[in-house]
Amino acid sequence: MASTSSPTLSQAVLARPISGNASNSSSSDRVSLSLSLSGLKFSPLSSSSSRRASGSAHRRRLPAPAPTPSSAVRPIRAAAVETLGTATEASLVEKSINTIRFLAIDAVEKANSGHPGLPMGCAPMGHILYDEVMRYNPKNPYWFNRDRFVLSAGHGCMLQYALLHLAGYDSVKEEDLKSFRQWGSRTPGHPENFETPGVEVTTGPLGQGIANAVGLALIERHLAARYNKPDSEIVDHYTYCILGDGCQMEGVANEACSLAGHLGLGKLIAFYDDNHISIDGDTEIAFTESVDTRFEGLGWHIIWVKNGNTGYDDIRAAIKEAKAVKDKPTLIKVTTTIGYGSPNKANSYSVHGSALGAKEVDATRKNLGWPYEPFHVPEDVKTHWSRHVRAGAALEAEWNAKFAEYEKKYKEEAAELKSIFKGELPAGWEKALPTYTPESPADATRNLSQQCLNALAKVLPGFLGGSADLASSNMTLLKMFGDFQKDTPEERNVRFGVREHGMGAICNGIALHSPGLIPYCATFFVFTDYMRGAMRISALSESGVIYVMTHDSIGLGEDGPTHQPIEHLASFRAMPNILMLRPADGNETAGAYKIAVVNRKRPSVLALTRQKLPQLPGTSIEGVEKGGYIISDNSSGNKPDVILIGTGSELELAAKAADELRKEGKAVRVVSFVSWELFDEQSAEYKESVLPAAVSARVSIEAGSTFGWEKIIGSGGKAIGIDRFGASAPAGKIYKEYGITAEAVLAAAKELC
Amino acid sequence: MASTSSPTLSQAVLARPISGNASNSSSSDRVSLSLSLSGLKFSPLSSSSSRRASGSAHRRRLPAPAPTPSSAVRPIRAAAVETLGTATEASLVEKSINTIRFLAIDAVEKANSGHPGLPMGCAPMGHILYDEVMRYNPKNPYWFNRDRFVLSAGHGCMLQYALLHLAGYDSVKEEDLKSFRQWGSRTPGHPENFETPGVEVTTGPLGQGIANAVGLALIERHLAARYNKPDSEIVDHYTYCILGDGCQMEGVANEACSLAGHLGLGKLIAFYDDNHISIDGDTEIAFTESVDTRFEGLGWHIIWVKNGNTGYDDIRAAIKEAKAVKDKPTLIKVTTTIGYGSPNKANSYSVHGSALGAKEVDATRKNLGWPYEPFHVPEDVKTHWSRHVRAGAALEAEWNAKFAEYEKKYKEEAAELKSIFKGELPAGWEKALPTYTPESPADATRNLSQQCLNALAKVLPGFLGGSADLASSNMTLLKMFGDFQKDTPEERNVRFGVREHGMGAICNGIALHSPGLIPYCATFFVFTDYMRGAMRISALSESGVIYVMTHDSIGLGEDGPTHQPIEHLASFRAMPNILMLRPADGNETAGAYKIAVVNRKRPSVLALTRQKLPQLPGTSIEGVEKGGYIISDNSSGNKPDVILIGTGSELELAAKAADELRKEGKAVRVVSFVSWELFDEQSAEYKESVLPAAVSARVSIEAGSTFGWEKIIGSGGKAIGIDRFGASAPAGKIYKEYGITAEAVLAAAKELC
What we know:
Two copies of one chain form a homodimer.
Chain A: H1 9-12, E1 16-18, H2 27-34, H3 49-53, H4 69-72, H5 90-111, H6 117-133, E2 148-151, H7 157-167, H8 174-178, H9 208-227, E3 239-244, H10 245-249, H11 251-263, E4 268-274, E5 277-278, E6 281-282, H12 291-297, E7 301-305, H13 312-324, E8 330-335, H14 358-367, H15 379-409, H16 411-422, E9 443-444, H17 445-459, E10 463-467, H18 471-474, E11 483-484, E12 493-495, H19 500-513, E13 518-524, H20 528-540, E14 546-550, H21 568-573, E15 579-581, H22 586-598, E16 604-607, E17 612-613, H23 621-626, E18 628-633, E19 642-646, H24 651-663, E20 668-673, H25 676-680, H26 684-690, E21 698-701, H27 710-713, E22 718-720, H28 731-737, H29 742-752
Parallel strand pairs in A: 1-7, 2-3, 3-4, 4-8, 7-8, 10-12, 10-13, 11-12, 13-14, 14-16, 15-16, 19-20, 19-21, 21-22
Antiparallel strand pairs in A: 5-6, 9-17, 18-20
Helix pairs in contact in A: 5-6, 5-7, 6-7, 9-11, 9-19, 11-19, 15-16, 17-22, 19-20, 24-29
């Protein structure tokens, strides 16, 4: 972290602009670029590298080739030295880019809602990525080894829909473009992976996408390190991302990009759409930092494409350069004009988030020389893009053959990798989970959680994760593995740093990379407040991330109210498609992990204690699977005098109170209510068997907000909880002062029965 | 934002280290430092600037002065040229610093809980700030013009408690130090402004404090620009902050610091405790970015103090330099050793968050030559610090006299400023709020909100705020004011940029600066997820921030589920000490603002619509003040057949269904439930008058999670809401498909009555 008074080399070359002007680019620069081995996918024409190396004519139009796309395609990276070719006749590129622009314009116009500005400005990047650079199979959007693309500036989703449409994805047909932002369409207002195959992650909330991209690149690096062999790079893809000024301002993006720099994720290539416009107008009013300098500080390689509107070769060269930098992620700052082509609205906030309007659409058609009807894709553009279906199938077939070879040689690794990309859990994995008896020693559920994490990592190849600088408090270290660091990416302990929001979003990227990946991440439960933006996207985008949240109540003691969650259980119970689990002991912790692993399309939040808890009689993994279940009962006929309901660390208090009441002759049922969501999903019969409607004498106890408990205890019940902030003192003292005690349960129960 | 290939001047001098070694500091450097007009507070000895300028002897011990503190004190910045003096005999400084260290060690040891590492490493900075630099009055911690100090690394709070104790604050007596982290003490585990006068803000959750500090510095700049006169700088203080590696990793810190750089907040001076240790060990495992370079990108001035352990003069020089830089905030990177002085635990994570243990405490006493009993403050140290009580009183008295002069000359400004620092709202301010009749045009509550904001800004001098780049969507612009920019800080429209978390934390800083400041901030309601960390601190720290949250439901339409809040109302209803308000029309919006303004120690969240709503008969400001109230009723004897309950945009649907039911002869009551918290606070009689226990036929409708509604509607009621994520389509379509309709209310009511 030391700085010196003289600039470092990287400072000196910081954000070296790639200008569109041949006269100020030295030939040696260009030569060095074309020496790189990694390059662009398609180079159907004769190599243009010699032209480029000569430093001349690099923006002049090339003579049109015969339109024979089938023979012109070289769909794979087979050549030892790939060349920096302009993929097709230049005017066709221009036409394709304008097709993208007008598909976006037309769809937004038809919906009278949406964001045309970004697609119009980013169409050149989009075209080059999807038509020339990226390796994918349109007919199998889930092909494991595909390059990933993330539109972090998700509002510009018509860019991606247009590209998926041109590339031949079945998810975005012409009728889908025409039903943009309409009920039931596959083209919603922001990209959603679960609606539109070809979309990798769900974006729109700014900054999430670039952090997802970090996750995708991180896991690629991990899997490559684990499974690649000297004779077979079976895992080998890039992650591309487009992010805008809004993403750049978000803290989550900085967090994730800082980690990406730390880990040196060289196959992450992010395009910063530097258009100087955000919703409120020119970025001058709020955002005047030097993004380049910040990213240099974060350890990224930075390239500046000055002319992102028409400098296609500059974009190509930047990608080439980015690929050549193996040890750092690259930020390609592409200066564009938002709404490029619109004569009256370009470069203004008015083109950001509204339809252009019929008049301006006409003016834009005129300005860009676009004579076509709305939604029209010119035949030559269609023909040109049509090769991707064949090329993509060939790419996947080639990879499948490669994998078959790999499988022969490396049986064990192949089986693991297969389980990761197929999402099939190994048979009997759940037997690895520990079980406990009441005689097992008392322990904190955070420690019991660590036993589960370590047990699962042994049997689940896709299981990995870490903590936001609290590994030793959250107890999340996998003991048989080392740290995932720049030079040891094959390890499974990820050190996220104090970056909760970035951590959550990175885990979403990992989970959505391949169905067999099961990322977990950890911090104190109260700091879910820092990462809730990412956690909600886990829930929405069906990312089965496991959130290991320790220090789950006032039971953490002296750290005080800033660190003591109160309303957090309720806040997640209210969130759709997420499992809030609060286990009471070892068996329930194991049960919570079983549930979390099984629910691959639903994230889980595990609330775990800092303090020791006894192993309670009656708890079980099977019980947890029901969400709420009876752990002890001395009633008969499903007619207890009172039902005591607890969760997590307070289940013990309910059990103690029950002992007392039973001594006094009462028929008492104790129910563990570990997950409200799972209980909701049980049959009416089961629910009645646990909480009979006829028994209104119910007492709940939980060291958190009572908000919502009326649903469980009914109007006649009593909820013991905490509806104010916590306090700084030893845990036992706070429990007592706040009335979270067995005595309180006893007293409440006596009032009711 | 342009970068060039040659380093800029600021790059060239980036993080110029201030070393403790006189031989490598040029005399011209030192001379330039001592030319600054703003300087250190105390320079009781004869000026040492000539010694320093000579470039020699700048670390040798000075001869001890006679201990006559009363005559030695020059408590004010009266001298035209202040000097860089070592405040006291050097060994006394050392002794004072060790006193701070051992008070922290002893308190943590007694509590057997806490964080000794930071106070031991940062004691030198702490001493210099509180003993030599900062202007404050220990006997009036709320003196308006005091310098503000924020310990962003709040876990190190024993540093601040020790300093407050030495400085003579009544809030931290010896017995308070001895009850560190105990029940009922004024020295909780993390600093809490509402527990400990002298603590400005509540910190602990990392990154919040530096963002609060940005808020404090921002509002100082604003008030200075509005109220200072050529002949009277009536507002004039610095904001100091200490932040650690953890804070630096948090996105919220980057967001706030980016805005601070944009606004050029020159009186913000942040010390980065660069100790290379976080909880999980060396920062090398997760945090290897160049913080200096990042902050240079953010537009800050950067200074590096290489030896923060004993380089006291270097720290002093850095502060002097920072003060001389008027147009940029300064980051002083101070390289320290965590746990400095502990022979076996210094520079390791083990000293971060645990007591040293008796043996290591002994070893540290020996190592630092500390012969005293626990909690002992040596007499000479006590005597030395004792001057602050007198000096502080003098500072305040001087300022009061200055203000009296100001008041004579600038009556109107003085009255405004007084209302800001006394927190007295101008009489009759609430009359400015607009009212509406059912004939007033239908409008979105976001627009009605803008009418309120503009009305309030006219009558409340401390009212200001802005949006996270959504001013034109949130409708938050104050039309009679311009933008608060670097060169126009007197304006009241703050452009926060797309930095929700930073925005919330900055507003906490503003709110806690002076009791008459009423900051508001805005984004889409769903993005409260991004800023929940700051919002919870608003609630905990009693910061009356107004959160203007528009686009509050599926009613926002096409932007889809990523932008549609579902669980957010419930999530805030569960949070202690925050008001969740969802007004239904113009009168209720005005009522919500009245409540929000009145509640200066409780933040408010206003959920507002994007879509138009009619002005409903029966709504009122007075009704809103009750939280829940009847807007229409055709029953008698407090025995309606059914009670229909709605909030916000769905109140209209309840009213429509009531009309239908009444046509069918039913006695129907319609209740607006704008704030659950306020309703909870009403008398039992009032509650019974609105929701009579005998009437179990209740239907609620709200376009959000039904979680929690059982409390209002009881076991016999029906809650109409949304317990899944939203969808992308025109709003009316989604409402219909999701069954959020008057018809659904009607059907549910018919089932119940």
